[in-house]
Amino acid sequence: SPYGTMPYPYGPGAPMMPPMAQAPRPGGPLTRETLAQLPPHMQKQRLGEQLYALIQRHRPAQAGKLTGMMLELDNNEILGLISSDAMLQQKIHQAVSVLGQ
Fold first, then answer.
1. Suppose 34 and one of 10, 24, 41, 75 were both cysteines; which one would form an S-S bond, judging by CB atoms 3.0 to 4.6 Å apart?
2. 3-class DSSP assignment, residue 12
3. Which of 24, 21, 45, 42 has its CA nearest to residue 33?
4. How far is it, in rounded angstroms, from Cα 74 to Cα 35?
5. How many Å apart are CA 71 and CA 67, to the nearest integer?
6. If you compute the radius of gyration of the chain from its CA atoms, what whole number of angstroms results?
7. pLDDT of residue 20
């Protein structure tokens, strides 16, 4: 049969199809580009959600307060904290020392 030898296109050896361009997904990676597509109030919301999840790993009891403090920063600086754990930990340390005063 001529149809018996056709390879199944979705098997393990199938080429990966590139994802279609789409609106930023909740929980997807935040970039300056995806952030710029959101209205200003949603920008801080998305940044806050991602920051909170990261801060909670280091300081679960203070995650809410620390996130609120860091949301006062410029969006570009917040993106830097989200992308660099070392920068985030340094900023957490600074914020905790401010809270301790």
1. 24
2. coil
3. 24
4. 13
5. 6
6. 21
7. 40
Predicted confidence (pLDDT) per residue in 69-97, tens digit: 999 999 999 999 999 999 999 999 999 99
Write the single-letter amino acid at 59.
R
Neighbours of 8 (CB within 10 A): 8
Contacts 24+ apart (CB under 8 A), 87-96: 88/54, 88/55, 88/58, 89/58, 92/55, 92/58, 92/59, 92/66, 95/66, 95/69, 95/70, 96/59, 96/62, 96/66
| Tokens read off for 23 | 């609106």
pTM of the model: 0.69
Provide the token pair at 62: 């203070």
